[in-house]
Amino acid sequence: MTLLMASLERVIKPNIALLYQWGVGDVVRLCTDTAWLLTFNPERVKEFLLRAEELGVPPTSRMFRHAVAVVVDNSKEKVAAKLEFFERTLGCSESEVSTAVSKMPAILGFSDKNLLRKIEFLVNEAAMEPRYIVERPVLLAYSLEKRLVPRHHVMKVLQEKGLLNSNTSFYTLTKFGEVTFKLKFIDCHKDSVPGLADAYAAARAGTVPSSRI
């Protein structure tokens, strides 16, 4: 059902009132990002809110809207299977997975194949310990092709040329927005490493150079 087809008095208004009663931190943002939530029967919405909280995400958290989106799109069985996947793949406890999900609920929406490729890269190429990844779940939300692989290539080039502070971790490089990353780690080295910008662009396009610049 679309928002225009839903009853204003019987469905939309009661759902908005429910969100406020539930203590949702930013009702306007949640309704803007997930407007379709307002079209469900209020009892269903209450169920979604309960399930989102059960993931360890409090209603006041800015991550709550993401948790709601996940439970709406995934059954209880699918969510349970994904939690078990993280425990098995990363060798962590149930409580550790819960903490990771509370920080980044969106990771529950990725396919096992997508997540496994990222985990394998982070462990085998970026030399990260599974526990380190669990404590920084945003790493699993980044694009492997557009962010993780290209930035890792840049890091290795700069390290080999002695142009990267030894205290700068790969995780640090992944956190910057695209514009800031290029300014701090590519553009400022255009004279000392003239081919770096092209190599980075090629990596983002899916072609990681086989040799260092």
UniProtKB/TrEMBL annotation:
<dbReference type="InterPro" id="IPR003690">
    <property type="entry name" value="MTERF"/>
</dbReference>
<dbReference type="Pfam" id="PF02536">
    <property type="entry name" value="mTERF"/>
</dbReference>
<protein>
    <submittedName>
        <fullName>Uncharacterized protein</fullName>
    </submittedName>
</protein>
<dbReference type="InterPro" id="IPR038538">
    <property type="entry name" value="MTERF_sf"/>
</dbReference>
<dbReference type="GO" id="GO:0006353">
    <property type="term" value="P:DNA-templated transcription termination"/>
</dbReference>
<dbReference type="GO" id="GO:0003676">
    <property type="term" value="F:nucleic acid binding"/>
</dbReference>
<keyword id="KW-0809">Transit peptide</keyword>
<keyword id="KW-0805">Transcription regulation</keyword>
<keyword id="KW-0806">Transcription termination</keyword>
<keyword id="KW-0804">Transcription</keyword>
<comment type="similarity">
    <text>Belongs to the mTERF family.</text>
</comment>
